[in-house]
């Protein structure tokens, strides 16, 4: 079942995916993609903070679990629990999103802007961040697979090699990976091993 993290991720990727094919939407995304990325990060971590506070309150109200909180237990136990339960999946995906962002911006700057369109590195980072951990692994495999299939199909049909932009693949791929993660992969054994 969907949690609020997934609903926020689906909403953001859905809105971006709907906006990107249209001229006005594309202009908006080019202009505000950095702000969208920052807003997604703030919303996800604010949601994590809300869940942590709610969990603390629930534990405090139970006679057994309140023994896991101060003064009976060091606050470090609860902090570690909150970190691994609510923050770690998105902290990990944020690290890789920032890495992709840095590589994309640096490569684009070095090559004179031929690899990515304006604002595209931030859309890539937003997508990678919102799929969380271990979803970002599935996301990268899915993105590369879809791109390879499209590139190969185009080459077979047109008989010429050409550069196909990833602009329209970043966000829709993230949207579908989030759905697949929620409905199928999250219930598999290996997903539990990769997750916290």
Topology order in helix (H) and strand (E) letters: HHHHHHH
- What percentage of the residues does DSSP assign to strands (E)? under 5%
User: From the helix content, strand content and strand pairing, which structural class follows?
Assistant: mainly alpha
What is the rounded Rg? Answer: 20 Å
- The unreliable regions are none
Total number of strands:
0
**Cα end-to-end separation:** 17 Å
Q: How would you state the average pLDDT, rounded?
A: 89
Helix content: over 70%
Count up the helices. Answer: 7
| Biggest sheet architecture | none
- What spatial form do the alpha-carbon principal axes imply? elongated
Entry summary:
This protein is mostly helical and 196 residues long. The chain has helices at 4-19, 23-61, 75-110, 120-130, 135-158, 170-183, 189-194.
How does this model look, in words?
- This protein is mainly alpha-helical and 196 residues long.
- It has seven helices and no strands.
- Helix 1 (4-19) runs antiparallel to helix 6 (170-183), helix 2 runs parallel beside helix 4 and helix 3 runs antiparallel to helix 4 (120-130).
- The mean pLDDT is 89.
List its salient traits.
single chain, elongated, mainly alpha, about 200 residues, about 0% strand
Q: What layout of secondary structure does this protein have?
A:
Layout: H1 4-19, H2 23-61, H3 75-110, H4 120-130, H5 135-158, H6 170-183, H7 189-194
Helix pairs in contact: 1-2, 1-6, 2-3, 2-4, 3-4, 4-6, 5-6
């Amino acid at each position: 079942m969907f949690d609020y993290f997934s609903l926020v991720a689906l909403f953001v990727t859905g809105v971006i995916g709907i906006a990107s094919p249209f001229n006005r939407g594309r202009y908006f995304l080019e202009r505000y993609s950095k702000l969208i990325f920052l807003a997604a990060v703030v919303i996800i971590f604010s949601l994590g903070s809300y869940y942590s506070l709610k969990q603390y309150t629930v534990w405090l109200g139970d006679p057994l679990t309140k023994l896991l909180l101060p003064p009976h237990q060091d606050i470090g136990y609860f902090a570690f629990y909150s970190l691994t339960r609510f923050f770690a999946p998105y902290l990990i995906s944020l690290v890789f999103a920032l890495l992709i962002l840095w590589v994309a911006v640096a490569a684009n700057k070095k090559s004179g802007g031929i690899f990515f369109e304006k604002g595209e590195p931030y859309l890539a980072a937003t997508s990678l961040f919102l799929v969380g951990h271990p979803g970002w692994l599935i996301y990268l495999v899915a993105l590369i697979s879809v791109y390879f299939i499209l590139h190969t199909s185009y080459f077979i049909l047109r008989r010429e090699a050409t550069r196909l932009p990833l602009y329209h693949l970043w966000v829709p791929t993230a949207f579908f990976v989030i759905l697949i993660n929620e409905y199928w992969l999250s219930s598999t054994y290996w997903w539990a091993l990769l997750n916290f």
